[in-house]
Amino acid sequence: MEEKIKQLFQEFNNRLKADNDAKSLEEIKTDFLGRKSSLAKLFSQIPSLSKEEKAVYGKALNVLKNKMTVLLEQKLSTGQMTEPKTDLTFPSRIPDTGSLHVLTKVNRQICSIFENIGFSVIEGTEIEDEWHNFEALNIPLDHPSRDAFDTFYLDIPESKKGKYLLRSHTSPSQIRVMKNAKPPLAVISPGRVYRPDEVDATHSFMFHQIEGFAVAESLDFSHLKGVLLQFAHTFFSPDVSLRFRPHFFPFTEPSAEVDISCIICRNKKSFVQTDKSCLLAGRRKPQTAKCSVCKGKGWLEILGCGMIHPDVLKACGISPKKYRGFAFGMGVERIAMLKYGVDDIRLFYENDVRFLDQF
Ligand code: PHE
Questions:
Q1: For the chain, which terminal residue's Cβ has fewer other Cβ atoms within 10 angstroms, N or C?
Q2: Ligand 1 center to residue 275 CA distance, Å?
Q3: What is the residue range of 135's domain?
Q4: pTM for this one?
């Protein structure tokens, strides 16, 4: 037994000298001190020894166990082991950086297109009064078109210009600028607008609009068309065409809604699936499918516009006999959804980095 104890300690020391990393120290611990170790085997022989031998070797084994434990711990704590080498040439992890929100980017892009053709950016106010949001824009109190601009009213005392509200469109910016500045004017006014709409894939109670307008002595619908065509060509693609559909807005006359030719199917209304997608769909021959962006219509509505109504100019102290103006308003979320093929407006507000990272 004595011999075996000596031998075991010898083996232990040899292994301890040879193996230096943390993993092999763990292995030494299992081999020499674990439940199936040689030490455990020696302990199991104790019951078969004589009474005197039991006392001597029992003690000797316990001393050996303590020695090995202390030596192992010493080696671990003094760190005399070789650590795995750090490879300094290995590429480091690129830290995540913040970036502008996609709506901010689209907003800035749109504004800069108009700035490049001479428009100035002037922001209006988010809290408006009834006069600026409605009356001055030719929407009287009892006019049914007020329903189209369903509004959040603020529970605070009224001003001389009616109840306070969260603006339901950016058109009141036209009024604020026209009352305070003299024509010629060419202004772009971006900002948040609020409508008590039920939230779904295409509606939100808060969204962003960009208002644009110009007032000068000789302006007509063709100037409006030219400006909007320039915008569509720069923002979407030089080969999109515009379609003006007659519409009604109380603050413009004549008024129109403007569509661009679908940027996905290029106004073909349907598209031929590629061979790959046919294969995936398990079909042999290419099939045509309805364009999922324009729903087969070939056109996408992007904004509302028109020539500023003479009564709106009058409300701002500008003579409709001398001056004429055009105005347009577009939803930033809608434009961003069309450009990037986003099918749910809520994605813009949820701040999921996996979504935002893509822009
Ligand atoms: N204010 C209108 C809306 O919110 C858009 C618009 C602006 C239409 C300017 C014509 C001229 O729907």
A1: N
A2: 43
A3: 102-262+298-356
A4: 0.73
Cα 34-36-37 angle, rounded to 5 deg? 65
Q: Give the residue, by CA position, lying nearest to ligand 1 atom 2.
A: 329
CATH of the domain at 172: 3.30.930.10
Statement to judge: residues 232 and 157 lie in one domain: yes
Give the highest mean pLDDT range of 7-11, 52-56, 73-77, 182-186.
Answer: 182-186
Ligand 1 centroid to residue 261 C-alpha, Å: 21
Mutate to test the pocket of ligand 1, among 147, 206, 249 (most ligand atoms within 8 A of CB): 249
Ligand 1 mutation pick, 167, 169, 208, max ligand atoms within 8 A of CB: 169
pLDDT in tens, 334-354: 999 999 989 999 999 999 999
Residues 24, 110 within the same domain: no
Question: For residue 240, which of 259, 257, 218 has the smallest C-alpha distance?
Answer: 259
Distance from Cα 329 to the centre of ligand 1, integer Å: 4
Asked if residue 163 belongs to a domain, the reply is yes
Two structure tokens written together for 357: 């990272």
**CA–CA separation, 197 vs 203, rounded Å?**
7
Domain count, the chain: 3
Residues 178 and 215 sit within 8 Å (Cβ to Cβ)? yes
Q: Do the beta carbons of residue 341 and residue 294 sit within 8 Å?
A: no
Distance CA 188, CA 108 (A): 11
| Residue 61, domain member (yes or no) | yes
Q: Which residues line ligand 1 (CB under 6 A)?
A: 169, 171, 211, 249, 252, 304-306, 327-329
Q: Which one of 248, 251, 301, 307 would you pick to mutate in the ligand 1 pocket, going by the greatest count of ligand atoms within 8 A of its CB?
A: 251
